[in-house]
Amino acid sequence: VPEDVETTTIPFSQVYVRDIEYARDPAAPYYCLFEMSQVQPGTFIPLLRLDKIISAANLSSSNSEAARKLKERAVRIDGNVVSVNQVATPLPSKEFALNVGRSLRKVQIVK
What pLDDT digit, counting tens, does each position of 24-76 carry? Predict the structure, then answer.
C-alpha cells in the first residue's frame, strides 16, 4: 500500500451488526481481520457490515452501491477478494487496505 493513501477512521457503532463468539461457530460467513491464533476461545468480537464500511470510507455513494460491488467481487481487503458483507475484528482493528474497484483507502475501525 502506498504511503500517500488516505486513511479513514470509522467508529464501530456506525457499522456494527452484533457480537459473535469465535469459538462457537468459526464457519460463519464473515471475513476475519485478525489472526485466529491471536484470539482466545470465547472472546467476543464485533461483527461489522462491510457495505457500511465501504460507504463510510467514501468508496461508494450508498450502502446499496457498496452491496452491489460486493456481489460483483470488486471489493478487496489487503489484496484478498471479499464477497461476504460481514467482517469480524477485535477493536481497535488493525489498519487494513480496502479497495473498491480502482479506489483505495486505508481503514481502521475504532471504539
Answer: 455 558 898 888 788 778 777 888 999 999 999 999 999 999 999 999 999 99
Which of 9, 94, 90 has its CA nearest to residue 46? 90
- Between vectors from CA 14 to CA 9 and to CA 23, what angle results, nearest 5°? 95
- Amino acid identity for residue 30 in this structure: Y
**Per residue, what are the HEC states of the chain?**
CCCCCCEEEEEHHHCEEEEEECCCCCCCCCEECCCHHHCCCCCEEEEEEHHHHHHHCCCCCCHHHHHHHHHCCCEEECCEECCCCEEECCCCCCCEEEEECCEEEEEEEEC
C-alpha cell read off for 47 = 461483527
Question: What does pTM read for this prediction?
Answer: 0.85
Query: Length of the chain in residues, anyone?
Result: 111
